[in-house]
Design a protein that fits this description.
The structure holds two protein chains of two kinds.
Chain A (H helix, E strand, L loop, with lengths): L1 E8 L4 E6 L5 H16 L8 E4 L2 E8 L13 E7 L5 H19 L4 H6 L1 H11 E2 L2 E2 L4 H22 L1
Antiparallel strand pairs in A: 1-2, 1-5, 3-4, 4-5, 6-7
Chain B lengths: L1 H20 L3 H12 L3 H19 L6 H16 L8 H8 L4 H14 L7 H12 L4 H14 L5 H11 L5 H17 L1 H4 L3 H7 L5 H17 L8 H12 L15 H15 L3 H17 L5 H16 L4 H16 L3 H17 L3 H4 L1 H8 L4 H13 L6 H14 L3 H18 L3 H15 L5 H13 L6 H18 L7 H14 L8 H14 L4 H20 L8 H11 L4 H15 L2 H7 L19 H9 L8 H5 L7 H10 L18 H10 L8 H14 L5 H14 L19 H28 L5 H11 L3 H13 L5 H13 L1 H10 L21 H9 L7 H21 L5 H4 L1 H23 L5 H16 L6 H8 L1
The chains are: A alpha+beta, B mainly alpha.
Chain lengths: 161, 967
Amino acid sequence: QIHFVILISRQGKVRLTKWYSPYQQKERSTVIRELSGLILTRGPKLCNFVEWKGFKVVYRRHDSIILVILNLYASLYFCICIDPDDNELEILEIIHHFVEILDRYFGSVCELDLIFNFHKAYYILDEILIAGELQESSKKTVARLIAAQVNVTERCVSLAF
Amino acid sequence: MEQLKTIGRELAMGSQGGGWTGQSKEFLDLVKSIGEARSKAEEDRIILREIESLRRRIAEPDVPRRRMKEYIIRLVYAEMLGHDASFGYIHAVKMTHDDSLSLKRTGYLAVTLFLSDDHDLIILIVNTIQKDLRSDNYLIVCAALTAACKLINEETIPAVLPQVVDLLAHPKEAVRKKAVMALHRFYQRSPASVSHLISNFRKRLCDNDPGVMGATLCPLFDLITADVNSYKDLVISFVSILKQVAERRLPKAYDYHQMAAPFIQIKLLKILALLGSGDKQASGHIYHVLGDIFRKCESSSNIGNAVLYECICCVSSIYPNAKLLDAAAESTSKFLKSESHNLKYMGIDALGRLIKINPDVAEEHQLAVIDCLEDPDDTLKRKTFELLYKMTKSTNVEVIVDRMIDYMISINDNHYKTEIASRCVELAEQFAPSNQWFIQTMNKVFEHAGDLVNVRVAHNLMRLIAEGFGEDDEGADSQLRSSAVNSYLRILGEPKLPSLFLQVICWVLGEYGTADGKYSASYIIGKLCDVTEAHLCNDTVKAYAISAIMKICAFEIAAGRKVEMLPECQSLIDELSASHSTDLQQRAYELQALLCIHSQAVESVIPLDASCEDIEVDRNLSFLDSFVQQSIEKGARPYIPESERSGMFSVSNYTSQHQHETSSHTLRFEAYELPKPSPTPAAPQISVSTRTTDLVPVPETTYYTENNQASKLQPVLDASSADHGIKLHLVGVQKKWGRPTYSASSSTTSSSEKKTNGVTHLDGVSLQSQGTLYDSKGQQSEVSAEKQKLAASLFGASAGKTEKKPTSTQRAPKANTATAERPGVARAVSPEISKQKAASSPPPDLLDLGEPISTTTPTIDPFEQLEGLIGPTPGPSTLDNSVTTSEQKAPDLMALYTDTPPSSSSSISSGLGDLHSADKNSPMAKNVPSIKKGPNPQDSLQKDATARHVGVTPTGNNPNLFRDLLG
């Protein structure tokens, strides 16, 4: 059971948040602040897991995703909060699975894609995770669904305007 | 070069952004300026400005729909960055009504991100969701289902439920999958509302589409977690699915990094772990496919390791199988030896699971574990502490708890500090080697995490100091108390102490501060006054302090000495008499009153060292009899008991009612039962529950079961002697202070067969562990001596202990030592046996072999059954039997000496039982004769058994066996 997914940049900027368990707006800010403090300071060779308030947070840093603004190459952290008895390695791979699908969709995803098209990232995430569970593990299926949606959407757009 | 890239990116972004979404320049500028913001404050300013402009524009009449879509997305953005955009929620809701899929999806996305499931606007969306679920366009249905997962709450489930169920048969697999997930979510929200639909999940398991099947595993996992037994029939189906998945029968699209559908495999393994837990038959079906996966899984990729880890979890959860356990241990050691911290972490976790079944797995990895413990990575360190916590026993408790406390002091994270403090306390209570150590440890814990630990812990500590070792040794008790007093007087010098700790200190100083005559009353009183001065705003501490002063004064007066009132004490009393707290006021006035009365009266008000005395409560209120008599004589109406008033109960029923009153203080909702002729069984219960009117309530349940056992086995035992038995039991068993935490050994089917084999298994452990220790020492001579020392202290078996062995075995065959060691053996093996033993013989101290206590033969002898299992020989005569049993147990004694842990971790070994004894038995049988005295008919029997066992598992990877064979 996944409680939330957060994407934060190296500078601690939020790129995407998805909450599967109920959190108030205030709690959300606290969670993000505490976690970015915890995760961004960790060294590169340490575990990709941190224990946090009885939960476990699995994070993965993606250096392939580069931030270009200000000519800084920075990485994006994908964080997923899970129950203490879940399989961390599996979650780590779910993150990777998500990134691969983003890659396929955006064509080698960069952080800018996520910044300007964050709602699309949400749609993709909705196809992979639903209600805190992994819904679809086939990249092809996800890609097909997303493509169908995009096609319809574009047709709608062209019809409507 | 980098700049070139940047430009390229920006160009690409510009074209993409424009082409796909038609976002306006404004939005791009906004995102850009946020990206360039140097500080959180700057970012906030930009977003607030943005929100203001959106608020204005969104409310304008006739906003074009496409423009509105962008506004909504901008609101989502603002909300994501932690700002309130609630003014726009209603517009997002409106957008879900739109006919265009593009706008509808945006609307749904926004509401799922904005609204929690108890928001008032949900009710406005339900209608839309209902309509969309009926749509012909499957993409709209998908969007509605996704939204339903997030938004539908308990009250609105019935509104959409029928449609969602219909969608389970939708031609599009994407819809079926989402419908399954939606139903799962509904089940999580409110299990009752979908309980009649659970069969649908079973049906969907056979769906043609692997995606739908995979999704169905999520709800099934939850359902099986809640109720394992109703799904046992699915074991075979799950196994066959897993088999097919592992054999790559699924479409290629489900492959992930050359693994065949690993996520589905992991989910299936989780489910099988639940279904096979403690179920030999179900586990039998699982073994084969698990073995296959172990073989096929490659440990080079991360996902392969994830599957392997899940396999280890599964193996350690289901009914044990020796081969699979070996494979699991092998994978675990690969994890631990890996360079990757992630894998080390998983390895430590896996090791924690495996040692529950087989404690000696840890031996091989002791140095790896210690490396992890000293790793700079906090996550790894904490995981290792968790492992150490699981493998704590009385031999290594000091090292482990010391380490834990050191770590506890070093961290700031309150959440984890609380956890580790409570673990320290738990371990110390369970395994403390001495009371001195216990008190010192508790002091440290209190000093550094005092405000984080449970109040119960403080009460336990006070009770321990008050009760001491036991009834017999007053000298040791007073020594303990004076050492406590000494340490507390020293600690009081520290500037900042947690309130709970101060309460303990005050109480102990009050009770025992002047007991040994080392400190004068005025000195202690002065110290207590200092405490109240240093903690002006803490009323509880003040109350404890003033009560302590009162006790000291009372003891002084009772001893006939004059109490001269210190000025600071007088001012304290004056201050508290005028306190806002009535409690403090009362205490102060009581103290003043006490100072004025006669010494004899004082002595009966506050007797010396009476904290452990039972206070007799006269339930019949007999002291009022004369008053009642007088009143009746004066013409008052006599009291009619309730039972007589209702006319249903006879007076003889009183006892059973009485019993209910004592045993349960809660409201009873069931009807009173009819009167029973014999209320005798109630007797022991009552005596127990009154006994617990001690300082701190002792958990009653254990005593209760003891009593039951006692009365079952020895019906002649009367209540008082049963009580006596309890006391003895308490003293003899090492875990004096904690609840006996017997882990629920999962297998309910565990028969005597397993228990007895558990005994032999333990022998193997101790012997083998020593063997491996030597080996590892030989190999790793370059490892620092300090680490080795730590390893030795953590992992028990040390060279010094081996020397003890022969003497103990020589003693063992003597006639009635058997009874002496039996409690220990039983304790290591299974709680059931230990209870039987405890009932049949007053358990002597574990290691006290010098004075064996002869008892009557127990009614059930588990070792008789052992005979039947180990060898094919028919049961010998009783005389023979007694000899053989004692010899059988000789090695157990060694196990006791070395490292038989009375911990929960080892008692689980009963589950492992017969599987492991197979290969563990052999080295024992070979080693034992060398230290045995004289020839023995049992030798041949055992050798025969050994031969059989070896024959059964020729490939058993047992280093000792090989050493024995190859020299």
